[in-house]
Amino acid sequence: MTIQWFPGHMAKARRQVTEKLKLIDVVIELLDARLPVSSRNPMINEIIEKKPKLVLLNKADLADSDITAEWISYFQEHEDTKALAVDAQSGQGIKQIPGQCRALMQHMLQKRADKGMLPRSIRALIVGIPNVGKSSLINRLANKNMAKTGDRPGVTKAQQWIKVGSELELLDTPGILWPKFEDQQVGLKLAASGAIKDEILDFIEVALYTANYLKEYYPDRLQERYGLDELPEDKVEIIERIGEKRGCLMRGGIIDYEKACELLLREVRAGKLGQISFERPEV
Ligand code: GDP
């Protein structure tokens, strides 16, 4: 799915999220654990105003776990927000979500109890940019408890809720937000991680960015994966060496540069070079 964000789209997406906010207690903000800043809508806190928020660092299976741990502390310290590392594909970390939402709503639940009212389910909305894993997470949380209240006769179909255990209800359609594309670095990181499709950015440029990033932060992985005794300083040369080692050749034995770029990107995105994070918290 290729999404081009134009100002009109952005305004519409924001409006849709704002509408949904009226129905819920807690926002679950889904970010990519490999690039929590670039996979975020920078206006999120402004959009959700004062709603309590839980941050989920998804695709934690693909991210560098030490850096994910640093991000969790970062969110706690700098934004006073609880963050959890999850993997919506395997379900890792998912079980903690209802309890964390409840903790965020403790004040409201206590107030109801003080008034002698019965406890009610906490209502949550998942928000995030395209491809961050919103549908996967909803499916995971829904498990077999898919209870669409709208299916009952006489109930309007406007909003459907999914029951998660006994105390959480989730809106079945997530809020879609947009990343901050104006920043070239953001686009390159999103593309390097596979979060956006190759048609959007020149894949050669993305591969060069990736080679350079790996040279700086994960040189051993590059050397090991492609059997390079030494890493060239120049990113173009790194790609050439990868092409050479992997037999990406054109007629006459000339290195097929484009093929080597594709190979590097495919392997990084598939986790073949191990768990990689593209962003670290600034300390
Ligand atoms: P959405 O556009 O936000 O709804 O994203 P999807 O749920 O469709 O997920 C986008 C892609 O990411 C799919 O190929 C998923 O299988 C994959 N995905 C989602 N969550 C995870 C995860 O935690 N780990 C990994 N490795 N892949 C994931």
TrEMBL record:
InterPro entries referenced in this protein's UniProt entry, alphabetically: G_CP_dom (IPR030378), GTP-bd (IPR006073), GTP-bd_ortho_bundle_sf (IPR023179), GTP-bd_ribosome_bgen (IPR019991), GTPase_MTG1 (IPR016478), P-loop_NTPase (IPR027417)
Keyword list, A-Z: Cytoplasm, GTP-binding, Nucleotide-binding, Ribosome biogenesis
Stored PROSITE patterns: G_CP
CP-type G domain residues: 14-179
Predominant localisation class: cytoplasm
Annotated transmembrane regions: none
Localization terms from the record: Cytoplasm
Stated family: Belongs to the TRAFAC class YlqF/YawG GTPase family. MTG1 subfamily.
Subunit structure: Interacts with ctc. Interacts with the immature 50S ribosome subunit. 2 molecules of rbgA bind to one 50S subunit.
Role: Essential protein that is required for a late step of 50S ribosomal subunit assembly. Has GTPase activity that is stimulated by interaction with the immature 50S ribosome subunit. Binds to the 23S rRNA. Required for the association of ribosomal proteins rplP and rpmA with the large subunit.
Protein name: Ribosome biogenesis GTPase A
Source organism of this protein record: Caldalkalibacillus horti
Lineage: Bacteria, Bacillati, Bacillota, Bacilli, Bacillales
